[in-house]
Amino acid sequence: MEVGVGGGRRHRELKARQVVATRSQPTKIVAIRVWVKLQIACRLPATTSSPLLCSTSRPSEEIMADQFDFLSHRRCVWVNGPIIVGAGPSGLAVAAGLKEHGVPSVILERADCIASLWQKRTYDRLKLHLPKQFCQLPKFPFPADYPEYPTKKQFIDYLESYASHFGINPIFNQAVQSARYDETSELWRVRTAGPATEVEYIGRWLVAATGENSEKVVPELDGLREFAGDVIHVCDYKSGENFAGKRVLVVGCGNSGMEISLDLCDHNAFPAMVVRDRAHVLPREVLGKSVYELAVVMMKWLPLWLVDKILLVLAWFVLGSTEKYGLRRPSVGPLQLKNTQGRTPVLDVGALAKVKSGDIKVVPGIKRFSAGKVELVDGQVLDIDSVILATGYRSNVPQWLQGCDFFSKDGFPKTPFPNGWKGECGLYAVGFTKKGLSGAASDAVRTAADIGRIWKEELKPAKRLFACHRRCISQN
Ligand SMILES: Cc1cc2nc3c(=O)[nH]c(=O)nc-3n(C[C@H](O)[C@H](O)[C@H](O)COP(=O)(O)OP(=O)(O)OC[C@H]3O[C@@H](n4cnc5c(N)ncnc54)[C@H](O)[C@@H]3O)c2cc1C
Question: InterPro entries recorded for this chain (predicted)?
């Protein structure tokens, strides 16, 4: 497999020279070196250890060492294949799919491990919220002995096996600072900041896989600075162990807020859960059957509004009325709300029983904090020791992707599922469907197939050049 022989790829590599040649003086020197290496590398197969071409078959340290330039703090790396940002389930799934299509890729990950959300920013008791068949990545089922709802540890083990099965070696500690498309060269330029140095990766395709939960959302709360106790975001909460005997205000009543309140109860703390908005709470299972699975099956035959009605009747049978405990339901049904506003219904794993028993106190919105206290909008004042902000996450794409209007300001593709995976100029988005892991898997399969198709077309160099030449002649 020759690289740089095909008209398209060769042309882009020539353009890469133009990109790097317009840079500042020290970078120019690097650029020239890069280009010289490119010239050499172009004659080598993409999958060999050529000095310049990166492929997932090579350890990242080796690539890094090869690219180091003693005259500059910034290194420049030509990526032979897509540049994938993020080594969560989405990034891994797309890299695996690309491998299956014979396309090498490079994954840049800001953390020092794969699936950092799961490894570093989730609580200990977490299990997958959805049954395992809706959470597995393409072409690699969960082990048969895994339970219906794998634990966080099992899910991480599964992802580690996934990465090693497909030979995926992300480059860690590479936080992408900016990525932009260079019109002149028709290439993506992706800058990262690592612990020691900055690197610029240059390549033909860019896959955004930084997830819907890459940054925590911390709301402005009046007086929070005066509150003397601990304040943490849910991403830093591991277990209720350290909160035994404490009065804890949990801000937010989504899946995380509810489950953490339950965990606090189990560790003899006294949680009060702030419920500002209306929320749908559904049982996770009805008669041993997953409610999510039931909804998926029903949606094949019935309209969404009817499925919503059935879900609410089932919820009423299993859970009773939630309103009298302070959990008022929105006027829009749970699936419609998810589809229109991306708000996930809470799948109850036991918290509601604690709400009913009064172990979890439901309180209205916050007015202001003061030292050791919180005043609520209904005038109540509570003495509290700690605050846990279960206030959610957001996408960080607008922070690093520049000059591109494929994503909206909230960091999601403007085109909704199932068409939000492909942008212009070799840009792809994987894992922004608001449909969890099944949405990410579907994006990954489409993205890998699309790039694989282009890759194969461009690997027909001789024919292409010849055909092109002939066309020119016939025109004359
Ligand atoms: C508590 C919790 C429970 C969940 N449970 C389920 C469930 O049961 N089922 C389900 O389907 N979904 C669930 N989800 C949704 C979850 O987001 C997905 O399951 C999954 O993690 C999405 O994978 P991802 O790769 O798209 O994003 P992530 O897992 O968030 O991975 C994105 C990666 O990109 C990296 N990154 C971000 N910014 C940069 C940057 N600038 N440069 C380099 N790297 C960067 C991050 O460090 C991270 O490793 C849950 C989410 C949470 C928070």
Answer: Auxin_biosynth/cation_transpt, FAD/NAD-bd_sf, Flavin_mOase-like, NAD(P)-bd_dom_sf
